[in-house]
Design a protein that fits this description.
This protein is of the alpha/beta class. It folds into two domains: 216 residues, Spore Coat Polysaccharide Biosynthesis Protein SpsA, Chain A (Alpha-Beta Complex); 159 residues, 2-C-methyl-D-erythritol 2,4-cyclodiphosphate synthase (60s Ribosomal Protein L30, Chain: A). It is built from twelve helices and 19 strands. The strands form five sheets. Strands 1, 4, 5, 6, 7, 10, 11 and 12 form an eight-stranded mixed beta sheet that branches. Strands 16-13-19-17-18 form a five-stranded mixed beta sheet. A two-stranded antiparallel ribbon has the order 2-3. Strand 17, helix 11 and strand 18 form a beta-alpha-beta unit. Helix 8 packs parallel to helix 10. The longest helix has 15 residues. The chain starts with a strand and ends with a strand. The mean pLDDT is 93. It binds magnesium ion. Magnesium ion binds next to strand 13 and helix 8. The site of magnesium ion (MG) has 5 residues, from strand 13 and helix 8.
């Protein structure tokens, strides 16, 4: 599900005390929330339309993000949207989502509903039914009741194919500025679908809206929990010691393998890779590659941890179980935990190593091989 995004951030936002797109919300500029939401939801290009001269400010607010570029907008919203459309690189049939910077709490679910609606409609916008009863007022005095039946609160982003919105804008001849893009497309004869909006997608208009958005954010999980499992087996062969969970344990046999055959670290590496759906240890360190002959498995584990870090995630805890009759693991268990904690930069109480026998049953019971299984919990930034 890829699409192009346009964020309109050229307004002065006078009602919220000025420049609301640059204001801090939960530690990030409002504009950055909106940009990250579109990029995380699958935007393959993002045009950020800012006031003339505000490009540097945008670069600062969006530092470290990719696939975006800033262009200068105009006085009216429609001028800014036109400037954003002109800057797109996508083809005519590609979906374009046009979003207000001041609606920072956009969920991927809303984006998915918009894109799906384009299968059957010329455009789509998120909307919420009006819950309060509506009154018409003359100054401060009630002058009548407005039937709220069929009334909806329109939100953004609004979605169209590039050619639909460009054609409709080209045909907009009214001197009056359009309220939004859905109005432009509808006035050109297009059918615009309403999809389920989101109360969290509120527009930050008044200073008190920021307090409400901060409160919503404080209740929103910033991370998603992931669990991965790993399993590994190596065969016993002649030797004088064995590597288990990063520790060399004296033994009258060793485990046979291409690397140091540390089944404990291999299972743990696979558990971490599993938590981030990054394949398995063999994908990253092919056993056919002579480079890994006799290699210390420490580096496999460190590589998996680096992949988690590259996704701005963190490992929460790990738990390894070694399955064998011999050697006795318990005397080495503390050293193994400390080694893994050091390799993963985790506190000791987040690292568990356990051992069990299989009561003489199966290949581990017969002493043909050692098995290890592991579980890892990882937190990744919520999308
Ligand atoms: Mg292995």
């Amino acid at each position: 599900m890829t699409f192009s995004g346009i964020i309109v951030a050229a307004g002065s936002g006078s009602r919220a005390g000025g420049d609301k797109q640059w204001r801090d919300l939960g530690g990030k500029p409002v504009l950055r929330w909106s940009a990250e939401a579109l990029l995380n939801a699958g935007a393959d290009e993002l045009i950020v339309v800012v006031a003339p001269g505000a490009q540097d400010r945008a670069a600062q607010a969006l530092q470290g993000l990719s696939r975006w570029r800033a262009v200068s907008g105009g006085e009216a919203r429609a001028d800014s949207v036109r400037a954003g459309l002109a800057a797109l690189a996508c083809g005519p049939d590609h979906p374009v989502l046009i979003h207000d910077a001041a609606r920072p709490l956009l969920s991927p679910a809303v984006v998915a509903r918009l894109i799906k609606a384009l299968d059957t409609a010329d455009g789509a916008l998120p909307a919420l039914p009006v819950a309060d009863s509506l009154r018409r007022a003359d100054a401060d005095v009630m002058a009548g009741v407005v039937d709220r039946d069929g009334l909806w609160r329109a939100q953004t982003p609004q979605a169209f194919s590039r050619k639909t919105i460009e054609t409709a804008y080209a045909a907009w001849t009214s001197a009056a500025a359009p309220t939004d893009e859905a109005v432009v497309v509808q006035s050109h004869g297009g059918q615009v679908a309403l999809v389920q909006g989101d109360p969290r997608l509120m527009k930050l208009t008044y200073p008190e809206d920021f307090a409400m958005a901060e409160a919503l954010l404080s209740q929103t999980p910033r991370y998603q929990s992931r669990i991965g499992s790993g399993y590994d087996v190596h065969r016993w062969g002649p030797g004088g010691s064995v590597w288990l969970c990063g520790i060399e344990v004296p033994h009258d046999q060793t485990l046979i393998g291409h690397s140091d055959a540390d089944a404990g670290l291999h299972a743990l590496t696979d558990a971490i890779l599993g938590a981030i759906a990054a394949g398995d240890i063999g994908d990253h360190f092919p056993p056919t590659d002579p480079k890994w002959k006799g290699a210390s498995s420490d580096q496999f584990l460190i590589h998996a941890a680096e992949l988690v870090a590259a996704r701005q995630g963190r490992i929460v805890n790990v738990d390894v179980t070694l399955i064998c009759e011999q050697p006795k693991v318990k005397p080495h268990r503390q050293a193994m935990r400390e080694r893994i904690a050091a390799l993963l930069d985790l506190p000791l109480d987040a690292v568990s190593v356990k051992a069990t026998t299989t009561e003489g049953l199966g290949f581990t019971g017969r002493g043909e091989g050692l098995a290890a299984q592991a579980v890892a919990t990882v937190e990744l930034p919520a999308t």
